[in-house]
Every structure is written in structure tokens, then in C-alpha cells.
Amino acid sequence: MNENAQQCVDWRSEEFLAELRQSEQELRVAHSEYTSTVSSVDMAASLQCCGLLRALLTTLRPEKVLNLGSGFSSYVLRRYGPDLGSNHIVCVDDDEDWLELTRNYLQGRQLDTLNTLSWTEFALHHAREEFDLVFYDLGRMPTRTLILPLATTWVRETTGLLILDDVHKPAYREAVSKSLNGICTIDDISDLTTDELGRFAWLATDFTRTSIGTG
Fold this sequence. Notes:
This protein has helices at about 5-10, 15-35, 45-60, 70-80, 95-105, 120-125, 140-150, 170-180, 190-195, and strands at about 65-70, 90-95, 115-120, 135, 160-165, 185-190, 200-205. The protein is an alpha/beta fold.
């Protein structure tokens, strides 16, 4: 990813908001089908959050992307990432049965499943890598909260971005604030990502390696 790309993006500029609206529109039919046949509206990542993910792919063109928590977000990355310069995409899940469902869903749409990995496989082969963009939606909330400090170590210093889904939950929001305090900048993007169920995401940027992962 261009080192200046993140700094040049204004998340609330008319240009980015137009890209966000276009992304949501582009994904609407596929997301509706996914939440009707594979998952449910309250369990799958929201259309708004996945629209943000696609808009960031389009705007920033990250080379390396980490998808912690497979599902519809995996579809977005596999469908649009390669065309936008994301040539190294790793999708991870701690639930191997759900991971297999994700693989089947991707294969059914003629999408690549390379590096769609279990947590153990990821830990063995990719745990020392850094990524330009990390989408963090892993497992149930206790697991997600526990692993969050570790997940920050996979975000590229200075230029990397971390999308944190489900921050509408007060206990998790408090844990996020504590874990990320002092190691990055947190942007409350609830105005861009709130869905009909009241769920929303935060965006973390400007990670500092000297203290990263110590919260």
C-alpha cells in the first residue's frame, strides 16, 4: 500500500462517502442472499461494515490483507481484492466447521480459497507477518477480546489499518479502548457503519510498533 494513501483519505469526504455508498449498493444483493442462505442478519458482518471494507480496498489498494473471522467479509476480499491490488489475502477462523462453510461458499462463486486457514494453520505459517489492512471479527466475544492485543501485532506500523466490528457492545468497546490505548489512533466511524440492528465498527490507524500489543 502506498505509504501516503492512508494519510490522504478523509473518511468523511464527499469522495469517500460516494465510494462507500457505491460499495454498499454493489454488495446489497450478495449480502441479502448470504444472510438468507448461509448466515443470519444478526450474525453476519453488516452490509455497512462490508461496504466500508470494499471502499477501503478501492481507495487504499492494500497489498496484504488479513481477515480474522471468515464469512461474508471473506467474499468481499476474494471478489474485489485481487482486482484492486490485494495480492496476498489471508482468511482465518477459529471454528473449523464454519471455515469449511466459508470455503464452500467461496468455491460456489468461483472464488479463490488459497490461504483460507484455521487458527492453528495461521499461527504456524503467518504469525510473524504484518498486513496493510486487518478486518477483525474473530469468534465469539470472549475469544475476540482475549486475542485483540495479539491481533494488533499483525497491523503494519504507521500505515496499517484495523477494522473492529461489533464495537456497539459496551463490554467489548471498553476492552478495545483499553487494549489500543497509547498504541494507535481510534476513529469512531459509527456514523458510517451503523446498521438497522444498531451495530457499528471502529477504525484504528497510526500504530506505533514500540508499544504495540502491550495494552
